[in-house]
Amino acid sequence: MKELEKITPLEQDFAKWYTDVVKQGNLIAYGPLKGTLVFKPNSYGIWELIQHYLNEEFKELGVQNVYLPLLIPERLFNKEKEHIEGFNPELATITHVGEEKLDEKVFVRPTSEVLFADLFKNTVESYKDLPIIYNQWANVVRWEKTTNPFLRSREFLWQEGHTCHNNAIEARQFTRTMISLYAKFLKHYLAIPVIVGKKTPKEKFAGACSTYTIEAMMKDGRALQAGTSHYLAQNFSKTFDINFKDSNNNYDFVYQTSWGVSTRLLGAIIMTHGDNRGIIIPPRVAPVQVDILELFAAKNPLVSKVSKSLYKELSRIYRVRLDNSDKNPGFKASQSEIQGTPLRIEIGPRDLENNMVTLVRRDTLEKIILPIDDVKHEVKNILHDIHENLYNLAKHRLDTNLIMVDNYDDFKKEIKEQKFVLAPFCCHDAEEQEIKDQTGATTRCIPKKLDRPFKLAPCITCKRITKRFVIFARAY
Amino acid sequence: MKELEKITPLEQDFAKWYTDVVKQGNLIAYGPLKGTLVFKPNSYGIWELIQHYLNEEFKELGVQNVYLPLLIPERLFNKEKEHIEGFNPELATITHVGEEKLDEKVFVRPTSEVLFADLFKNTVESYKDLPIIYNQWANVVRWEKTTNPFLRSREFLWQEGHTCHNNAIEARQFTRTMISLYAKFLKHYLAIPVIVGKKTPKEKFAGACSTYTIEAMMKDGRALQAGTSHYLAQNFSKTFDINFKDSNNNYDFVYQTSWGVSTRLLGAIIMTHGDNRGIIIPPRVAPVQVDILELFAAKNPLVSKVSKSLYKELSRIYRVRLDNSDKNPGFKASQSEIQGTPLRIEIGPRDLENNMVTLVRRDTLEKIILPIDDVKHEVKNILHDIHENLYNLAKHRLDTNLIMVDNYDDFKKEIKEQKFVLAPFCCHDAEEQEIKDQTGATTRCIPKKLDRPFKLAPCITCKRITKRFVIFARAY
Fold it and tell me: How far apart are CA A200 and CA A205, in angstroms?
């Protein structure tokens, strides 16, 4: 039984705080290969709930789940030039089986566009086959140089959706539908507010015509790209010859989209809601929503009896864990907190004398002493309140730390302050690179709409008048 | 829109029949790398339901889901000698990232015993941490020379459970608990009867002390190993130094088990229940349980109206698909059959004149004409009957094709007839190999109990008196 160690305060060293939280929250262990992770029950449980609820949302849109191979032969991958250039330095390459050398290199998928393209080529014949709306839950490998649990690891889990449409308008619309779905999902399930927008040409996905993104703000002010949706146009369908016969018997290439969210979302949860006691898991995706702690059970047999009966009753509705071990009360409470369980119920002899129990909220640490009979009803309200509170705190932070500037000096100052900076910007690649080199900030997105007025203004670098406003930030 | 092609009759060429069924049932496409598969919605949907229901069963036993890395460094894999020898020729080996050569070879997991061992070593300290009961859903890669969809492919999906216990009795018991769980699961969800037994020393898992298996009989008489549960004893814990302090403050190594089922189960479903029209999916794991077909909708607007209302009503309870396309009625029925939907409801103008619709069972092809109002109630009964019928047919086949012999001549004759053969056998490796070379049959298991009397008898090869009866068969 491991002792709980101290977590470095986040004000003191945010990066160290993050590492402490993931290690101590029963979230991860490091894999034997550098940059790989073990998802322990407390993090994998969140991911399973994300899968469950996203699947429900996807189903409403007619998404069908499939599973494509992990392994991609070199010749297939190399077909799409821009795509291979984007991934080449990160490709895990299989050259041997046992002692035997293969005739052709095989890559472990970093993403599956080319696999889906190959599948669609052999599936699509007529406009009657369209649209095809497929999704897969899968692991992908990208050999990143610097790694960070959940945020950037050599293997991560994600879902990647891939669709084919018979016209560009429908495909573009679907690209936007998916980014909206993600934004709503993060709000309603993860209590994370995001900014929705389009990536600049420099930051878009290799092989896409345009990329939409949702950008979240972490507690240190840095941005985290939490999901993307790409309009691929006919880039892959022309290269891979995915054509169909339309209703007039003419041939055209399909219009495609792809979209995904990954286990980065776990990092987003930690850095949006976490505090100096560890992770705080939003109730809807918490593997354990309520911890019931038996305290001083030896002093009064009623403690165990009430705990068990409450556990049984609440388990019908919530995900509940009962800690009836002989660990000391302080340890039990700390363990529940460090693992981020949204609500714990402490059942001890003193409260029971008055037929009461104590509820402790993980987000506010507020203690609520209640008659036993009221618990069931109140748990519902409290879990709801916790979600709302987490969301509102994060939304307030995002709103107050998004700063509009009209010149490069102010821009640099605000970036230094770890703000999201909204600035008029022409989006030329060279200038974007220069800003990155000088300030560490990258363009996060061209927001679709913001709660503040836009107007024509001179670009912060080239001074030409532009109506394009872009959000910059340092990012994970 | 692809035309439906003919399926080769199974009596004519079983292997060709199988290939036709998997290709035409919207089940698979071949991946671009030889020996890899695309799981299309109709097969991946079955796998998702298997996952869902197995997760429910696992939960009852306190199993926690986790996810471990795909990639294993060579030094870790090589620690357990017997284990590495078992897998070495099939190991997909990463030597490069992009153009850069790695310092150490990295293997794509063929199974995860060594990864779990590494995790447990860093997790377990005290008997209070035990038992640990983990499971992961994952893809694994084994570079098989000959491949066959679902049965033997270079990548497959599975769950692998891994546990640590503080004593051998509990671990042995857990090994048996899991194999029983699998046997019940196959019966109740997949309608597949199995024989439960122990593998011979020659056929056990590399690195295990003993291996339990469930063996199913396919329609051609060959065996399919459908799930295994291994008692690993302290083999891995001693090699990887997974020790714990017991209640007397003495150190011991943990006792381990591992157990799994894979996407082979999809092959088992096809070859247990399929017929010359294609796959028949057992109702409980059918992605679509009921197909509603609108027929001649143009002739009477009531067709669409009734179809939609029935679709809406049944969707609350069942997984239902509505085909309201303008394809011809024969095509719609064939498509439903070839995809193995257990029940279809045909809604056409003629039946509707009498307020009736036609239900067609996929298993018996029986047509049932019913008043619309009775459909909802009857669907439940019919789906239940289909499951029972599929199971009973398979059970009868298994029972009548399991033959007991007491000499090697009869043994060879029965194996040639594609029977399961139960014979007294001493389980010496050399003789087991000889039988395999001569007859193509392998030992499937030493059954725990059978519905027929056992007695001491001379071994079919060495003639020594033995009480050990072993089942042999040709196998997938």
Answer: 10
Provide the CATH number for the domain around residue A329.
3.40.50.800
For residue A66, list chain B residues with Cβ-Cβ distance below 8 A. 38-41, 44
**Which tokens in the block code for residue A29?**
């262990």
Distance (Å) of CA B250 to CA B247, B256, B318: 7, 19, 55
Contact A38 B67 (CB under 8 A): yes
Instruction: Assess whether B333 and B461 both reside in one domain.
Output: no
Query: What was the pLDDT predicted at B3?
Result: 61
Q: Give me B373's structure tokens.
A: 């109002």
Instruction: Clarify whether residues B343 and B214 are in a common domain.
Output: no
B248 and B128 co-located in one domain: yes
Which of B2, B48, B67 shows the shortest C-beta gap to A39? B67
Domain boundary among B273, B305, B334: B273
Q: Which residues of A touch B116 (CB under 8 A)?
A: none
Of A70, A125, A129, the CB nearest to B155: A70
B297 in the same domain as B250: no
CB atoms near residue A238 (< 10 Å)? 13
User: Is B106's CB within 8 Å of A122's CB?
Assistant: no
pLDDT digits 0-9 by tens, A211-242: 999 999 999 999 999 999 999 999 999 999 99
CB atoms B68 and A31 under 8 Å: yes
Q: Across the interface, which of A93, A108, A118 has its CB nearest the CB of B95?
A: A93
Cβ–Cβ below 8 Å for B98 and A98:
no
Q: Are strands A195-198 and A356-361 parallel, antiparallel or unpaired?
A: unpaired
Note whether A178 and A256 are within 8 A (CB). no
Kindly report the nearest CA distance between residue A344 and chain B, in angstroms: 21
Say yes or no: A318 and A437 in one domain.
no
* Residue A206, phi then psi, degrees to nearest 5: -65, 115
B29 to A119: CB separation less than 8 angstroms, yes or no: yes
Q: Which residues in chain A are closer than 8 Å to B125, comparing Cβ atoms? A: 1-2
pTM confidence score: 0.96
- Closest residue in B to A43 (Cα) is B66
CA-to-CA dists, residue B173 to A433, B56, B211, B233, angstroms: 62, 20, 13, 12
Give strand pairing partners of A79: none
Distance CA B401, CA B395 (A): 10
Question: Are both B363 and B230 inside the same structural domain?
Answer: no
Residues B95-142: tens digit of each pLDDT: 999 889 999 999 999 999 999 999 999 999 999 999 999 999 999 999
**Strand, helix or coil at B389?**
helix
Number of domain units in chain B: 3
B88 interaction partners in chain A (CB closer than 8 Å)? 98
Do residue A155 and residue B118 have CB atoms under 8 angstroms apart? no
Residue with tokens 């080996």: B93
Max CA separation in chain B (angstroms) = 83
Could you read off the pLDDT of A165-209 as tens digits, one per residue?
999 999 999 999 999 999 999 999 999 999 999 999 999 998 899
Q: Is position A336 within any domain?
A: yes
Please indicate, yes or no, whether residues B423 and B463 belong to a single structural domain of this protein. Answer: yes
One domain for residues B189 and B137 = yes
* B85 min Cα distance to partner chain A (Å): 11
Q: Cβ–Cβ of A325/B68 closer than 8 Å?
A: no
Domain of B418 in residue numbering reads as: 404-473
Q: What angle do CA B211, B217, B222 make, to 5 degrees?
A: 95
Cβ A69–B37 below 8 Å, yes or no?
yes
CATH of the domain at B419: 3.30.110.30
Question: CA of B465 to nearest chain A CA: how many angstroms apart?
Answer: 42
